[in-house]
Amino acid sequence: MTRPWWLLVIAACTDAETILDPDATAIDVVVHSDPALGIDQVRVSATIAMTEAFAPGVLPEQPRALAADESFAILVPDTLDAKLLTVRIEGLAGGAAIAAGAATVTVHGKQISHVEIVLGDRAVCGDGMILTPLETCDDRNPSAGDGCSAACLVEPGWTCVGPPTGPSTCSLARTACNNGIDDDGDGLVDAADPGCASVSDDDEHGTGMCDDGLDNDHDGLIDFKVGPGGDPGCTSPSDPAETCVGNSAKCRACGDGIDNDGDGKIDYRIDGLGDPQCTSTSDRRES
């Protein structure tokens, strides 16, 4: 049996005949449905750990009666190598969803993975019944923002519990960015901490050198801290470098980023590559 190939690129799709590069990172999806249902398009989406993997797409672009067995390819980034995707398919007739199915597949980089999905009863989000694997929750309403999304998937940063038949009870999962604690010691808590992109983040550290949780200048001291233990070169989490620039009362010759004694060695470093005369960043002289 020869099956038509469609190509679904992330956030875009086409029903043109396509030759797929065998070295592409892709998923070959085969959809089985009853032609008597009159399905003329399918809506394709996917999630990774309950988070949307790419924007949903509809195939083919122009509706046509679909055969009992159809297939298409999803091109995905190489960064999804070894990730487990749940691929969801809704069968449409005149734009209305009349059937649905889902299956999981592990992505393999530079390879074409394969998954087959049989379309059956569609899930009705908001009816209080959990139809797995199409739904991972159902809290009796189709609204998002309460832990169970409009597609009845658990939203990032939330946990939902309940019997398999539903309904679900959802609560905000405790993370470093919603626990009311200054986890990284910079004096900023949860949403007020620039390291928190959302309440689901489990790390308050940011990307700047004085907020990233790394010892960037190798002096054994890390980031800006409101209490003891921080790097003296950091006067705030937004400082661009951990090295003192000479304008801080905390700066000393063994932590200012300058070769003060002209010996080609700079500051104290815990890896032994600094100035041998410096025993700590608080030493006032390199010689």
Q: How would you describe this structure to a colleague?
A:
There is one protein chain. With 287 residues, the chain is mainly β. Among the domains are: 7-118, Immunoglobulin-like, CATH 2.60.40.2990; 209-287, no CATH class. The chain is 0% helix and 25% strand. It contains no helices and eleven strands. It has strands at 7-9, 12-14, 26-32, 41-48, 51-59, 69-75, 84-93, 96-106, 112-118, 158-161, 169-172. A hairpin with a 2-residue loop joins β7 (84-93) and β8. Residues 1-7 and 9-18 have low confidence and may be disordered.
Annotation keywords:
single chain; mainly beta; disordered N terminus; 287 residues; four-stranded antiparallel β-sheet; elongated; five-stranded mixed β-sheet; Immunoglobulin-like
SSE arrangement:
Blueprint: E1 7-9, E2 12-14, E3 26-32, E4 41-48, E5 51-59, E6 69-75, E7 84-93, E8 96-106, E9 112-118, E10 158-161, E11 169-172
Parallel strand pairs: 1-6, 3-9
Antiparallel strand pairs: 1-2, 3-6, 4-5, 4-7, 7-8, 10-11
**Low-pLDDT stretches:** 1-7, 9-18
Computed structural class: mainly beta
Oligomeric state of this protein: single chain
The CATH topology of one domain comes to Immunoglobulin-like
> Regarding CATH, which class of one domain?
Mainly Beta
Query: Biggest sheet, strands in spatial order?
Result: 2-1-6-3-9
Number of strands: 11
Mean pLDDT: 85
- What is the second-level CATH architecture of one domain? Sandwich
Q: How far apart are the termini?
A: 82 Å
